[in-house]
Write a structure and sequence with these properties.
Elements (H helix, E strand, L loop, with lengths): L2 H9 L4 E10 L7 E11 L4 E5 L6 H8 L7 E6 L2 E2 L5 H11 E5 L10 H11 L4 H14 L15 H13 L5 E5 L7 H16 L3 E6 L2 H4 L4 E6 L2 E5 L26
Parallel strand pairs: 3-8, 3-9, 6-7, 7-8
Antiparallel strand pairs: 1-2, 1-4, 4-5, 9-10
Helix pairs in contact: 4-5, 4-6, 5-6, 6-7
Length: about 260
Amino acid sequence: MSAAAADARADAVPVIETRGLGKVYSPGSQAEVVALKDVDMRIHRGDFVAIMGPSGSGKSTLMNLIGCLDTPSSGSYRCDGIDVSTLDAEMLAELRRDKIGFVFQGFNLLPRMSALENVAMPLGYAQVPVQERSARAQAALAAVGLAERASHRPNELSGGQQQRVAIARALINQPPILLADEPTGALDSKTGEEILALFKRLRDDNHTVILITHDAEVAAHADRILVMRDGELHEEQGPGTRDRGPVETAAAATPGPEESTS
């Protein structure tokens, strides 16, 4: 990466930025659980990042906060430059619709709908005209290599094809962020590799892919690996790491006492 590109990247608004993010369940009670502790993180457009860790490490809590499915107990979170703490419930729903595409292990396709109808469904909530919905859904299916399967229902598709439909649906509103929770967990290894290769192509098209996984081999496909341990976030260099310039965290961007001008 050139110095000019590195400078431009540093000046760009991150699509995900957290500062001191924390989550405590049942605070002040005997059942209190500190799930997340002071998480500082920056993720830019075009990044492919894996967040991994064992059960109970805090990765699911962090995913829910990134996806605006839960609210933090402390700290701040900006999603594509928007401070989510300033949004009411309706505005949060709109942000999830417009900024984040979700992909889950279980596909979550509606069995009575065709692939095309499943992909087009989010456009209905956005009040997109019916004819435009169909055209955009067909284009999204073509982008994941399933144009010829548009009329098939989920039970007529393989697991890998169903996950591709789910990815097309997640991308239909052209969100800057794709949040994938164990997306290869229900797939065989060969099909899982195909889905991970698709994520890399999406990254190359300037989508931001955030992959939640407990599997180190899956995480190795990402450019950066963030590891959750006991609610704390750590950054590790993975085999899949590309040269995308210096590692960035929110903490690194905060001036120290010697740099302060006050």
